[in-house]
Amino acid sequence: MATGKTRSTTRRKFLGGAAVAGVATIAMPQVSRAQTVTLKMQTSWPATDIFTEMAQQYVERVNSMAGGRLKIDLLNAGAVVHAFQVLDGVHGGQIDAAHTVTVYWYGKHKAASLFGTGPVFGFNANEGLGWIYNGGGKELFEELQVQVMKLNVKSFFAMPMPTQPLGWFKKPVTSANDLKGLKYRTVGLAADLFQALGSSVAQLPGGEIVPAMERGVIDAFEFNNPTSDRRFGSANVAKNYMMGSHHQATEYFEIMFNRTKYNALPKEHQAILQYAAEAASSANEWKAMDQYSKDLQELISVEKVNVLRTPQSVFDAQIKAWDGLIATLGQDPFMKKVMESQKAWVRRVVFYNMLNATDYKGAFNHHFPGVLKI
Questions:
Q1: Strand, coil or helix: 68
Q2: Is position 167 within any domain?
Q3: Burial of 125: CB neighbours in 10 Å, binned 0-12, 13-18, 19+
Q4: What whole-number distance in Å separates Cα of residue 114 and Cα of residue 106?
């Protein structure tokens, strides 16, 4: 029979061992023992574009949260595949991931453009991201990827982009008639829209736009925003910048991964890749607010660009052209389903937002009289 002293010593040893075991369990969770994985992500953007900085914001968040066990190496457009070929590269495994926009691969299925640069039903890009995350959009996109197109790709969306300008022209656009016969650069369903408006469309990645303008391949163009446009040197080839358009009003970044590689990651890493997209979305949007507005002022004051609001007749003509495209696109059952889902979201969400929003324009004009000439 053990003595009292022996029982007390044994009990202390047992409790001490249990405590050590408990500490070991807490200190060594499953993710810390996972093998380090490095993913090669290529963008569709030139190294100097602000979109590359926004892609880097995503990469920084992933790398910071993963604690060194998951890393993304960011490559610029063309490092492995062409800017418009990142979907093929990710699907085929030539690259592990891409930072792009769906419109760059709409040639494979026009429904891609409905998840960025689709018809204008009245929602902005922030409301569009709401549809993707809470209105059925992400489920429809998954259906497009997996069931319709059989893609080995998994994607997340980020960055509600501001309305994209009508673009850069050698002469001011005074009516929709001025678009007829123009050789114009745009992408996705916007290309179909401008063709319906009488333009001849060339689809080019950002880095090729200004050289094409210099060679006379195009007469006018749009890309996305004042910062990218300024960095491209747009003011060197045209001096009239038309703001506002219905051609690309609800675009976002697509952050895509090879689905096989994504599925092989620990659940913790999959969650980091997903939630980093949501975090970067806010960071991207706030960066855009600051930088886009600064560069627009620089275009006006330093580069002497004639910045004008797009005439109402152009908006009216675009809406009418969209109506024709919607009827044609709706002949595809999947595309019809996507557009009906969007319209149901817009009818409810945008109704609330517009009915409830304060008079921002009136308040601006009160404090800055004569600045906003529209």
A1: coil
A2: no
A3: buried
A4: 9
Angle between helices 312-329 and 189-196 (to 10 degrees): 120
Number of residues that this document lists for the chain? 374
* Owning domain of residue 274: 34-162+251-289
Residue 123 within a domain: yes
Per-position pLDDT tens, the chain of length 374: 444 444 444 444 433 444 434 444 444 444 445 578 999 999 999 999 999 999 999 999 999 999 999 999 999 999 999 999 999 999 999 999 999 999 999 999 999 999 998 999 999 999 999 999 999 999 999 999 999 999 999 999 999 999 999 999 999 999 999 999 999 999 999 999 999 999 999 999 888 999 999 999 999 999 999 999 999 999 999 999 999 999 999 999 999 999 999 999 999 999 999 999 999 999 999 999 999 999 999 999 999 999 999 999 999 999 999 999 999 999 999 999 999 999 999 999 999 999 999 999 999 999 999 999 88
Give the number of domains in the chain: 1
Closest CA to 87 of 344, 259, 298: 259
Within-domain flag for 98: yes
Q: pTM, whole model, 2 decimals?
A: 0.88
Residue 167 corresponds to which amino acid? G
Number of H helices, E strands in the chain: 14, 11
Backbone angles phi and psi of 158, in degrees to 5? -155, 155
- Residue 113 identity (one-letter amino acid): S
CATH number at residue 131: 3.40.190.170
